[in-house]
Specification:
six-stranded mixed beta sheet; 6 strands; alpha/beta; 7 helices; single chain; 2 domains
Length: 207
């Protein structure tokens, strides 16, 4: 049995909103980049603009704020999906345990596992960090080390897991943090294996 309190899954209209928003963002940044490459003539620009520069920049800033909020929502959904995958993988290892997940943004340990008598038997943190071949950057490494320490410090006879999103991240964690030496109580597993980079030519073929 899996008990989870998470946000409502993204429906088709929600997907369209995200696609439109990111499409608009791409256009916005490409247009800005093109403009920046041209020689800037302040007097010519002012004459051509029906709105003041402050109004134009204000509109762009409002758009970017909305984009930032949407990215935050998307990050929460990624965390939720990763957590549900983690629960299924952990349940395969510990079928006698009931799992609880409070949702992205909830305080404390991400996933808790309980025996039939209500005794806490398992804890797990999930990390959505996906690394490239260059490995973990310093802020990512510190954040993961904090999760290792949080899992290690939790009292009790517990199974302790750090679930990372990909095999690349797991390899980077093992190489750069060396958890088997520094945090031997914690087991690291990955959720979805190798994540292949998206190739632009592949996207064009599918279209």
């Amino acid at each position: 049995m899996v008990t989870a309190h998470i946000t409502t899954p993204l429906d088709r209209s929600g997907e369209s909103v995200f696609l439109n928003l990111f499409g608009a963002a791409k256009w916005c940044f490409e247009s800005r980049a093109t403009a920046l490459m041209q020689p800037f003539d302040d007097s010519r620009a002012l004459k051509a603009m029906a709105k003041s520069l402050i109004d134009i920049y204000t509109d762009e800033l409002r758009f970017l704020i909305a984009l930032k909020e949407s990215v935050s929502i998307l990050n929460n959904r990624i965390h939720d999906k990763l957590s549900l995958i983690a629960i299924e993988k952990l349940r395969a290892r510990h079928p006698e345990i009931t799992f609880r997940y409070g949702g992205a943004g909830a305080g404390g340990i991400d996933i808790l596992g309980f025996a039939s008598d209500g005794t806490k038997k398992l804890i797990a943190e999930v990390k959505t960090t996906h690394t490239s071949d260059t490995g973990l950057r310093s802020p990512q490494k510190r954040a993961i080390e904090r999760d290792f320490q949080r899992l290690t410090n939790e009292p009790g006879e517990l199974k302790r897991y750090l679930v990372v999103i990909s095999e690349q991240t797991k390899n980077a964690v093992e190489k750069q943090i060396k958890p088997s030496e520094r945090f031997p109580l914690v087991t690291v597993i990955d959720a979805i294996g190798l994540v292949e980079p998206v190739r632009p030519e592949a996207i064009e073929e599918e279209e």
